[in-house]
Amino acid sequence: MAGDASSLLDAARWYRARGYAPIPLPAGEKKPVIRGWNALRLSEDDLPLHFNGTGNIGLLLGEPSGWLVDVDLDCDEAVELAEQYLPPTGAVTGRPSRPGSHRWYIAVGAATVQHKDPATGAMVVELRSTGAQTVVGPSLHPDGEPYDPLDGEPAVVSAAMLAACVKALADAVIDRRRGRAKAAPTKCPQPLPDQDAERRAAAYLDAMPSAVSGQGGHGRTYAAATALVHGFELDPEAALRMLLERYNPRCVPPWSEKELRHKVEDAASKPHDRPRGWLLRTDSHHETDFDLSGIRSTHVPSPMRDDRPPDPGLLPDHLLDVPGFIGDVIRYNLDTAIRPQPVLALAGAIALQAVLAGRKVRDELGNRTNIYTIGVADSGTGKDHARKVNKKVLFQSGAIELEGNEDLASDAGLITAVETQPAVLFQMDEFGRFLRTIGDPKRAPYLYNVLTTLMKLYSSADTVFRGKAYADAKRNKVIDQPCVSVYGTTVYEHFYQSLTPDSLADGFVARLLILETTSKPSRRWKPERDVPAHITEAARWWYEYVPGGNLAAEHRQPRLVETTAEAREVFDALAATVDAQMASSQGGESAVWARAEEKACRLALVYACSANRESPVVDTPAARWACEMSEHLTRRLLHVACDWVAEGLFDARQKRVLRILRKAGGELGRSDLCRRTQALTQRERQEVIENLIETGQLIEREESTRGRKRVIYALP
User: Which domains does the chain have, with CATH numbers?
Assistant: First the structure.
């Protein structure tokens, strides 16, 4: 793959979508040659310039990649002993001749530390962080071997704890080479109160990978038991209780108590290379005591606890109040709607202002007004009215050419439409079905590349979009500063059913502004009327406005909308929140948070254009509204995604049953649940119910009514 430019570029984009910072390396090399490489921060638009031919790819470590760190095992002994000394992690890579030689973690604040053999000076193990980089797949080693891609989930661990583990591993390797047993700590372990020991052991256990049948489940469970009774010196009964309560619910399938007791007894009686209480030790090698309480699991959380992100609820009413053009369009929308929907009116008005200001304004960071907004509501509740309002406003103001076709037949058709009209608004119904269709190349191969093109257009608003390269130069498409906006509507279930772990991680869903409403307004009699003159006048002003005047160069420079110092502080606060969330999240969750600040900047620019078209400025009200909107929508998406996004068919069935129960108020009788899950066979339904009960996500009880017993299923 290293010799395939498209594979290398796709890999760079994929790593960046996960929150990592990729850098280019020469083909077959392990070290970068670009001057100042450790300060390189490539945007998505920069990637094609750096990954455009044969070469390797590295990841900057530490702070640039959300505190991704690499424990590089430089010798066979370190690889062999790593499982005994390093925290478990879902991300382990290497190459054919050195499998498992790199173990990856998220450790905020970790520093690079090298451990060498004092006798030979050879490297034993290295903890790499800020200022370092590591080669990853699809790169090739100088010997020609392929590197593994970093596609697992790094465990989130304490930086001080990880440093202590790496130091202990290095000591163990050196002791083995000297032919002596593992050296005892220079200072005896400091005893901890039982309560504190159990607290720290519980945090460590939550960070360990769950046991899955056929995927090393026995070894993982034995490692968990060993950590408790040997590493933390817990009483075997306390360790068994903790395994049953905190670890077993997320094992597939769960262990019986007898099986877990047997593993605890083995862990307590068999010899180990590590000293007892090793995970409690605070010895003289470390100036800072390491705290395990901050470790967060990167694997499936225990279903006995609701570890879903908290629900911020639906959009607060005060965010519906936007001054100027957007507010005027919302009021016209609601005044003429048969079924008034304020949230959908806001979503449509944002998209309308976005396309009117397209290619005409920019903020100090280069952001433009291209925005993808999605309105989510039940069928028959007035989803189409905002689209009609936008069409009517554009038509009556003479700007109807700003609306694109409602059906995107292919990526080539999409590019041609944007080439004809670079500032364009695509309004689409059934957006959820559209997402499901374009994500499946077998169902509609001609639509498969539409999603990728929409992503590229989104990121090209401040630069130049270049389409596919053809031998016939006339077919090559180059579009200057495209400003594509989307307003889609969808039914709640269709949209969230279209989401997958990949769609959350690849960045497209993270770019969407998803505004939901559960309102089902009553029908009312509202005769059609023309758009008020002040709305068409504002729309026409934007349509005719040319930054720099009609004599400006062909490559127009949009008008700069300044940001006040007070507004910058509001954005800084959001950036701090985003950084903290990304440091404690992984995969799709991290990718969604990564776009929150960018969306806030674009929303603030749209707000400023609405409030004062002739002298727009991103001030404190604009920044506060935009940042609150972006953060709220981000938290809401992540909460709802936990109920819908599944890792496989069985997981999807479980989540469907849980959604049915939540919608029913938390409990249903057996017959009612069977009736609402008719798509499942009796065996499939029973397997799901049994697993939900065994993992503590469902409670089964019996009730007697008029002498007849009735089985009830309820949420805990």
Answer: 1-183 (3.30.2250), 187-307 (no CATH), 317-559 (3.40.50), 649-714 (1.10.10)
